[in-house]
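User: Hello! I'm new to structural biology and keep hearing that structure can be predicted from sequence alone. Could you demonstrate with GLPGLI family protein? Please show me the input and the output so I can see what each looks like.

Assistant: Of course. The first part below is the input, the amino acid sequence of GLPGLI family protein. The second part is the output, the predicted structure written as tokens.
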Amino acid sequence: MKNVLLILYLFLNAVLGAQVRQTPDSRHLQAVPAGKILFLPSFKNLKDLKENDFISRYVFTNTSDLSFVAFFDRPLTKYMAQLDPEAEKDSLFKTGNYQFTVWIDHREIYRSNLLPGAPQRKVQDTAIILNRPLINNINGQGSWSESFWNRLMSNGGENILTDGPHYLYMEIRPYVKLKNQVKTGPLMARGGLALQVSRNPVIDPGKITLNTPGPYDGFPVSSEPFDSIKIKRLKGLIREGIFKRINSIIVINKGKLQVEEYFNGEDRNTLHDPRW
């Protein structure tokens, strides 16, 4: 009887152990079962994540960030090895990747077989948690996951996510490309998020105040008249995230400073990276 109990214990431990995250940064999330995709209002490192950080509904605006964490029972490479058992492990990284599929309001909007190469091979070989940003308005680096979201929005998401309630649902599967044919594997993780979309704000120029620019040394301020309503409307659109990655509005009229507005915590002494 003891031997039976021992075998049963070892069996359950092997099965359930695959469901538990045992990396140093993620042991505090071990209660989350494999196969889940959970969403966050902003990106956090695994070691800083708490289970109450995850959200089931979200007010989605033009300035919203969005992130996800996917929990797998085994790394991507092991899934791909099942799809192509004869392949050498080194070649799997070159022939497949994750497949992401997104539905909005129960309608498939976008499916993407990520090109081989990103995420890195080490991630594909070892990761049982995928913690990635989809939108990062301030510190976004254009990573593969942010690029995926941008493609989603360009391929139907922008038109469907109108103001009002919506439901976003995402699945992750493995895929490999065999003889120019894509072979897709079983579901790795899935999850959904209820969205209340508010992306068309009303801009009231009467409630927006323009800064009064101060002179630079040898660079006076202009007293010429200008259309302040247009500048106020532009300022409002930038603040509401309609126009992104704009850090300043500077208008020089006849060699004199007329408008000087800054955003995202910058000011006239901030060094600006023109590569964006």
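User: So the tokens describe the shape?

Assistant: Right, they're a compact way of writing down the 3D structure. Reading them back into a model, for example: The CA atoms of residues 61 and 199 lie 5 Å apart.
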